[in-house]
Amino acid sequence: MSSFDEYILSIQGLILRFYTYEGIVEALDGVNLNIKPAEILGLVGETGCGKSVTSLSILNLVPPPGRIEGGEITLREGEKTINILEQHEDFLRKIRGNLISMIFQEPRAYLNPVFTVEEQLGEVLVQHRLGELLNSTIQKIDMELEKADKLKRHLLMLHKKLCLKMLKNPRSLSVRVASKIPLVNGFKSKLRMEIRKKVVELLKDMEIPDPQRVARMYPHELSGGMAQRVVIAMALACNPKLLIADEPTTNLDVTVQAQILHLIRVLREKYKSSILYITHDLGVVAELCDRVAVMYAGNVVELADVYEIFKNPLHPYTRALLESIPRPGKEFKSIPGTVPSLINPPSGCRFHDRCQFAMEICNKVKPKFIEVGKDHYVACHLFGGGK
Amino acid sequence: MENEVLFHVVKLKKYYPILGGLLKRKVAEVKAVDSVTLTIKRGECFGLVGESGCGKTTLGKTMIMLLKPTDGHLFYDVPQEIVEEIIALETKDPKSTKLKQLKKQYCLEEASGRKLMKMRQKLQIVYQDPTTSLNPRMLVKDIVGEPLKVHGIAQGSERRRRVIEVLEKVGLTERHLYRYPHEFSGGQRQRIAIARALILRPEFVVLDEPTSSVDVSVRAQLLDLFQELRKDFNLTYLFVSHDLSVVECISDRVGVMYLGKIVEVAETQELFKNTLHPYANALFASVPVPDPTKRKMRAPLRGEVPSPVNPPAGCRFHPRCQYAIDICSREEPPLVDVGNGHLVACHVVTCKK
Amino acid sequence: MDSRRWDEIKKSLQPTIKEWKFILNRIKKSPLSLVGVALIIFYILIAILAPVLAPPKPGADPFMVPRDWLLLKRPILERTAPIPPTTNHIFGTTEGQYDLYYGCIWGTITAFRTGVYVTFFVLLIGLILGVVAAYYGGIIDEILMRFTDIIIAFPGLILAMALVVAIPNVFNLNLSLIISIVLAFLAALILLSRRLKITVKIISEAILIIAICVLLFVYKIEWMMTINNLDKVLISLVLVGWPGYTRVIRGEVLRVKNEDYVEAARAIGCSDFRIITRHILPNSVYPIIIMASLDIGSIVLSAAALSFLGLGAPEGYADWGWLINISRGWIGQAGLFTYLHAFLIPGIFIFTFVLGWNLLGDAFRDILDPTLRRR
User: Do A54 and A43 contact (CB within 8 A), yes or no?
Assistant: First the structure.
């Protein structure tokens, strides 16, 4: 794989198995992937190829009976590199939502229906950005102090002291007691106002019209596009290094999808996060991504720059996929056969029984994932994957 | 003599009442389909595109009498003269007995009981999601054979023979008879749904987004299958979809819907080459093209589709339209033929001509 | 030809067999479900083997518990006191010297009968009303549901008690009226059916109308019916229990009614009846199975409670609740443990019986819950 300086997340040889009643499902069989800083990497593949479980593995969120049984997922933070799979749950909880966030296909399923947008976004902010909010609250109190008279001054000084205490230790006893006393807990409402301001700011960033009104709405009152924007706001609230987007626009109308794709581009410029964009729509990939990884039956079969992949696809599956896009006037070309069951996957290269270029070696030896051009990786015996 | 026009829809309306209050009175209406007129020729594939909430699925289901129309007429396989006669009589003499007679005989929306049952043999539908459109507790042979049983057409071994025959036509085999739907992949389930629709030898099939729930590679197989079946069985399709590339490949003519109304109709090539209506334009421009050199720099259309309960006055699209003029907010534009069977409902376009 | 038919039948059973194998596998994995299944099987065996385990006296009604007349010939103070287990009476006796062992064994059959009868009728009523309310909606739904709400508003056990007291033991049934109602119903069904030819319809309607007239005006059939208190308990439990099922079934039917495949069935031209029986019911039956198996336990418990209060089985009947009832006066007398056996043993039977059904119901819920299943 390419040199260490170039990526923020690298997956090598990831193996994932599901132990089910019908047998052992070999969901991922040595997945290799890397993501560069501030780039949009598209992960394309059909149903059942393993793209969703790959993204869940990054955050170690694969539900049982799934078990990760091999490989490394390395995260780069500054100078350090950490293998996510070896970490404890506490560390993972710190990076989830913070360094790495995730958004999903049906936004309203991931928003709590009994809390307003404001409350939910506020919760994310309080969890991860409390320091910032407290600092801005303290600044506001300072401004008020200048104008206040003697009586108010004492109260405001008390509030400021409590905020400072909360900065050092959010769960200190004095803060908790003070929150219950009527006048003294005014610092809490000041904090809440700051949170509300920040929420509206975030919503405005997401190009949501009339953000004050939307902040007070409940999830069921939001349309699909609006809800997806709120979820993106929640994911970006902590300025993560990596945003994993699992088919976020699949359920949306095409005009709304165009708006969200444009929004993602704008946000990438602003927040400088990398985005792992999972989809089955090649049009979206061409529209949005910088690099593309193609998956089939639990393997990444090709990884290259987006222009390169569309102009010069190497792997037979990628080529067949591009050819099966319906084009007016031309005949419909489909890939013969069906996606294999992963309980008893084909031997050697998993695509060999549907591949028109299959050779002897293809059903015996699994091709390695190697670099065949500048930053262009393929796993196919046609390009020397057997060495 | 066969009629050239198979299905003639005249001012079809489908409104859903919203009930509220203690006594559950009607407080508002969802105007899902609002006065739609269109014709479908025999043997053609008519594509119907639009976004969610525009009413295309409702239109398809109402046309085959799966939903009861609120108003309007459905003429199935009725000669042009009679259609014109009925329309003329409606404006001139709405209470005449002759009109009642004609309507009872020719209008599909008046059919009920046995007559409707017979029509159902000719009008069928394939749903979007094959997982929910097949009864999970029924075997494939019962699912596909049920239409025969209900209409009392074939019995015993004859029925079995016909089921196997139609299964083979859609690419499945006898081995698949004794299985439950959940044992199949998405593409295969859709084929079972297609087999169920075809076993009665219908003439007109509504395809409600049949390729939306399946993978890209299976999509091409299904589209191939649709073309083949159209030729073999002499079918007429209403292909409802929000996937423009698929519609472009399979349809002969295409109609674009917005908020319950048809805004543009034309032959496929003509429509995609020479799009006239501003909404249709924005819609086509929003589709991501699988070619990274052709990226769009901005989203072509702002805002969201308004609710069909309270559609904007005048032209439904005028609040989001960049070409809107004064008359657009007052009067609804009629569907006008601007040449070659290309119909548009837009003041700006018709004013220019 | 015959072997081909056999092949066909085997093939069509294959998918069902696969399902059952999966269910068995899930049961095996959960230890509590195994306990529940074991308990129920245990009681079924007892019920079947009752004539062998506790042979009734020849010529006597097997459900009447035998009394030990010898012991009754003892001095007055001890005459009716329950005696602890001895060689003659394995579980001892209750007050009045009824043999506990016999009572508990045959009480198993009574318990099963109670649970099954009540559940069957409650399900029947619940299915009919629930399906009609949910499928046809509108004002029918409103009326039925309001009526259901009224019944639910009454506290169940107390209403059951009131009904047991109110229903007379001796009925003078006007059978002709009942039969004519049934025939009228049949006539209405024939009138509404689409399948029959017109001539067949007219002839059968004529026959039915003549029969109804004859029954009502010419030849009255009357029947004197006596029921004992236990049957009254069953009837009142049915009358109190049907609203719960109606609601659950209505909810399920409403959910299934909106599924695509029901609409597809209408597109094919299925009649309402066929849609209900072939499409809606098979898919809404799981929650009902769960509810019914959990409920059998509570029905037996309610029946036992009513018997304990004296409103249930008549004297001498083999019913667990009644066995506890007659030993009521001896609880705590002469120390805690002297007469413990008299109510503890039937109590244990009731407890384990209900526990078995509850565990089974839980097991069903875990297995049959579609969200938890792996498909």
Answer: yes
Q: How does DSSP assign B187-248, residue by residue?
A: HHHHHHHHHHHHTT--SEEEEESTTTTS-HHHHHHHHHHHHHHHHHHT-EEEEEES-HHHHH
Q: What pLDDT, in 10s, does the model give residues A229-258?
A: 999 998 888 888 899 999 998 888 888 888
Which residue is listed with tokens 């009731």?
Answer: C350
DSSP letter string over C205-267? HHHHHHHHHIIIII---EEEEE--HHHHHHHHHHHHHHHHHHHHHHHHHHHHHTSHHHHHHHH
CB contact burial A164-181 (16+ within 10 A = b; e otherwise):
ebbbeeeeeeebeebeee
Quick one: pLDDT at residue B238?
Answer: 94
Which of B215, B216, B221, B217 lies closest to B194 in space, CA to CA? B221
Full-model pTM: 0.82
Q: pLDDT digit string (tens) for B21-63?
A: 766 677 888 888 988 999 999 999 999 999 888 889 999 999 9
Sequence-separated (6 or more) residues with CB below 8 Å from residue B155:
none
Chain-centre distance for alpha carbon A261? 15
Instruction: Look up residue C266 and give its amino acid.
Output: R
CA distance A161 to A154: 11
Helix (H, G, I), strand (E, B) or coil at A182: coil
In chain A, residues with a C-beta closer than 8 Å to the C-beta of C374 are: 20-21
Identify residue A23 by its one-letter amino acid code.
Answer: G
What distance in Å separates the CA atoms of residue B73 and residue B11, rounded to the nearest whole number?
Answer: 7
Contact between residue B53 and residue B69 where contact means Cβ atoms under 8 Å apart: no
Q: What's the pLDDT at A4? A: 46
DSSP states along C1-16: -HHHHHHHHHHHHHHH
pLDDT > 70 in chain A, percent: 98
So what's the ipTM on this one?
A: 0.85
Q: For the segment C300-321, what is each residue's pLDDT rounded down to a tens digit?
A: 988 888 888 888 888 878 888 8
Residue B8 to residue B215: CA distance in whole angstroms: 34
Helix (H, G, I), strand (E, B) or coil at C132: helix
C9 to chain B: nearest residue by CA?
A: B178
Q: Give contacts of B220 with chain A, Cβ < 8 Å.
A: 324, 326, 332-335
Residue C238 — very low, low, confident or very high, per pLDDT cuts 50/70/90?
Answer: very high
For tokens 């319950």, what's the residue? B260
Helix, strand or coil for residue B5?
A: strand
Cβ pairs A/C, distance under 8 A: 4
* Contact: C22, A21; criterion CB under 8 Å: yes
CB-nearest partner of A255 from B51, B224, B245: B51
Strand partners, B344: B264, B336
**How far lies C132's CA from each of A16, B150, B186, C123, in Å?**
50, 22, 34, 14
Q: Does the CB of B121 have a partner CB in chain C at under 8 Å?
A: yes
Task: Pick out chain A residues at pLDDT < 70.
Answer: 1-5, 385-387
Residue range B97-141, pLDDT digits in tens: 888 888 888 888 888 778 888 888 899 999 988 888 999 888 898
